[in-house]
Structures are given as C-alpha cells and as structure tokens.
Batch of 2 targets.
Target 1
Amino acid sequence: MDDGTRTFLTCENVKLELLPKPTFEKRRSEVEFYNEHFNLATIEPFSAALGEAALELGAKWGLAAGDSLNLASAIRQGADEFITTELPRKPMFRVKELKIISLHSR
C-alpha cells in the first residue's frame, strides 16, 4: 500500500464491509489503518448505476452481492487490477473484465 505508483480505487461497499465490526469492537489501530487507506483512495459512492452494473456483472459470472458491487465499481472506475484476500477458487475469479489478484497466491 506504500506504492506511490498506484492509484487506489474502491467503493462505499468496501467501507461497509471493513469498518463496522472493528469500530464497534474499538479496535482503533485497525480502523485507523482502513481510514488511512480510504483517505488516499478514490471512492465510488453507492448509486443506482453502480447497482445496475453490479446486478449485470453478478448475473453474468455468478457472483455474490458484495463481490458484484466491488468488481463493478473497479471496472466502472477503470481499474487495471483488483487485489483481494479471497481464495483463487472463488467465483470472482471467473470475471474477465479485469485482472484479479489474490494475496493468497503471492
């Protein structure tokens, strides 16, 4: 994440996936880490257009809602890569519209 050559893109859904539990459990260092990343990233807000793109992508590749939103947002923002902690056998790796990299395969 210290790579100054990268532009980080994300969406509101990622914030919703990552922040509530550590915030509730008062894990301040984890919340600070996530917020530091979000402050450096371009964040696509929830919108009807994002929802429609996610629905279409999810139906095309058999994705769960969260993965559909995250991947559709990455595609809409023109991402070159999508980096995830998901295992490479997950349905999201069927998506051909962008390169998906699992941190488990590094």
Target 2
Amino acid sequence: MYFKKMQSRTKQKFVPYIFILPFIISYVAFFLYPAIYSFVLSFFSYKGYGKAKFIGLSNYINLINYDTMWNSLGNTFFYFLLSFIPTMIFAFLLALIVRSKPISRFQSIYKPIIFLPQICAVVASALCFKIIFGERVGVISQLLGKAIPFLSDMQLMKWTVVVLITWRAIGWYFIIYLSGLTTIGDDIMEAANIDGASAVQSTWHITMPMMKPTFMLAFVTNAIGSLKLYTEPNLLLSQNYDPPMQVAPYVNLIINSLSGGQFGMASAAGWILVVVILILTLIQLKFFGGDD
C-alpha cells in the first residue's frame, strides 16, 4: 500500500513536466543552444565553413573601435527614445478615454480601430508611408505644393521612421494599458469622486500608482523591441538594397556581418546588443520600479 502511494505521488510530480516537455525541447534546441553557441562563436573568426580560428576578444575590440557600430547604435537609440514618449503618452490617454463611462459603451468599435495599425503588415505599412512621405509625388508634398525630402534627407528620414514606429505601436500599448485599467475597481474611483477628487487628481494619485506594474511591462517590452528594430527602417528607407548607414539601425550591422561571412563578428555584435538591452532594462527597473 505504501509503495502504491509513493508511485502515485511520483507520477503526480512528473506528469506536469511531461506536458511542458515539448516547450523545454524547443527552448533548448532553438534558443538556449544557439545562444550559447553564438557566445562561444563570438571569440572566433569563422566564415560559416571550414575551421574556426580562436581570436579572443578581437571581435569585441574591433566593434568598439568601429565608428559604424556606434553610429548604428545611436540611430537605434534615436528611434527608441523619440518614439517611446509619444507612444506611451498617447496609448495611455486613449486607454483612459475609452475606459471612461461616456465612451466605454462603444469599446467594441474603438478598440479594433485603434489596434488596426498593429495588425497591418509591416511591408504594407512601410509602402503606404513611402507614398505619404514621398518627395515629389508624396501625399504631404502634394498637399503643401512643395517637395519635402522626407526619404532623402538624413534627419528627416529618421523622423519618418519614428512616425511609422509610433503609429504602429500605439495600438499595442493601448491594449496593454486598457487591460491594466480594468484591474482598477470602479468602487475606488467612485470613492475618490465622493471625496471631491477631480478626474485629473484621481488619475494622478490613484490610477497611475495602481498602474505601476503595467507601466513597467510596457516600458521594458518597448525598450527590448525598439533596440531590436530592423524591419521598419529597412523597408521605409531602403535605397536599392540597404538604407544609408547614417540612418541604419544596429541590427543591420549584425545582418551585414553575416552576409559578409563574419559569423564571429556578427555573434559579438549580437551579444553587445544583449548587454545594452540588459543595462537599459536594469536602469528602467531602478528608476521606475522602485523597490518592487
């Protein structure tokens, strides 16, 4: 009897692991092993075939002394920082408006409309923005009666990417903030109104502090996604094949290294990006997360 109970308990312990075994296998095969392999490869010179040659930290040193790397990293931070503020502000304001009582009854109409840019294909979005911001036959240039070099001037090219990223991202973070707002009970807001708090005071002193975990989720995911930015600027700013290096994001450095047969250099560039994302995430947790 005792042994049967022990066998039953053992089965109960191992059954959950059997159910998650497919995920564990795929995680190890497609993420953990490639990550470890790329880290090891970053210390080698490897062309994708033949024998890899150990060169120590040379790949990292060459990248640090490579002006293009810093320029690409600066471009990526420009896209991240300049799109982060308007995305978070507009997404939160839209969530507050849709959550408000006069408009909440029409959520089924507003939510799909606001979220629509997020589900649009990136290629289609970039092509539409090329039509809108074209220099000679673009919609804006035609309306203003003047050719504006949105897609040829280096500074304006960056701002065009920021507009595209912001337009696409607002719907996603709107849904995140709206989900966070649903966790705040109506009785809390009604109590604040009874005590004489205005809408602005209730938002500042009640809603925003209670939304702190949601804000952290949005901030961290936005930082990670923005620093891995690749598709939008390459589709929108590409000239023949690649966009100019003056506006290219950091991931282009990794892709170009792979295309050039510098697998070790590409791995080192990828791990530098991992470190940058980790540092930025820790900074966000320190300044916005407090002691949580």
